Amino acid sequence: MPAEPTRVTGMDVTVGDSGQRMLALMRETFDLPRSLTGDGVRGTLAAVARSVPVEVTEVPSGTRVFDWTVPPEWRVREAHVTAPDGTRVVDAAASPLHLLGYSVPVRQTLSREALLPNLHGLADRPAATPYRTSYWEPRWGFCLPQRDIDALGDGDYAVLIDTELDPEGSMTVGEIVVPGVTSEEVLISTPVCHPGLANDNLSGVAVLAELGRLLHAAGPLRRTHRILFSPGTIGPLWWLHDNLSRLDRVHAGLAVMCAGDPGPITYRRTRDGNQTVDRAMALVLADHETGADIRPFLPWGGDERQYNSPGFRLPIGALTRTPPGEYPENHTSDDDMSLVSAEALTDTLRVILDTIAVLEHDERPVSINPHGEPQLGRRGLTNRRGGEKGNQHEMAMLWVLNLADGDHSLMDCADRSGLPFDVIRSAADDLRAAGLLRS
Ligand code: ZN
What pLDDT, on the 0 to 100 scale, is given for residue 11? Predict the structure, then answer.
């Protein structure tokens, strides 16, 4: 049953059929052979571009990026192993997970013993296929269920890997840019390099594609919102390298992945721990219905590792549901579409939109009447709403008026008062309308 459309407070955004849209994008692109380079990433970005404009950049293989080099473009035409009796032991045509990522070309007949070191299974999940790559070391291999490996009999096996590592190729990166009215930017990024897995990383791609579509439709925001889809590690590093002279524009950001599983929202703070995005996220998650886990920075995980390097120190935190490495299906074929739901994807999307709304509306107001409390009753600002909401609203006005010295922000008011940011924001709106505040 589709969830009721809900409006994001303080933004012209309504989340209606987003859950089904995100699932549809994931189903459509699930089997594409994503990797650091190649047509899998291109096809995924082309699917995103059917609902929102995507600026695609092809970064030539061999491009130096800090301590790294953009790898050759990897293309797979055919890859399989044939048993002595002529049956296919494993075939990349069935799933892109079956071929070790970046496998070099091979055409050879091997004994079972010689083949085994190149076959990867999982002893503790014998029915699942693991996800493995060898991006930076020339190797070849196949990934398949351990029970299939254990069932291989003696004899000669024919290995065919028809791949190409093209030094003249490129790495594909996509950006959705929603222009704002100031030069400040919010950067939201997700990896787009894993094939044949749902939660890691396709769910992040789906959530950010839908985020881009909604922000585009919302009309101009205060800041430019830039959504980056790029292969893990080398992708964000290329973006940082390419934008080195403009990094001070980044006001806040999120590295998003593992966005659709049933686990609760997990937020990892920035390296410095108390940036604007950390405070906005804490306010949003403080009364999140399904609970949330806020943790300190860790130099392990997703794109945030690069953004929080000492040479950049960008104010970018990490948003996931269950973090990578903490759910048993991670990097196995069991991370399939059954692990993700429209509800969880929508919940992650809502948290991002709510955080953007807090960042958009945060300001440092100045009281026009700073000598004591202004008479609120005379201006019709008291007793306008009944019950607890009304009390909260009046308390929020007093907090905003008291802290409206130009040094304190609305987030400070929310922190100091313990009141929800939306209540503070609406109190500030009323005070401004009554001529008591200026921005
Ligand atoms: Zn991963």
Answer: 80
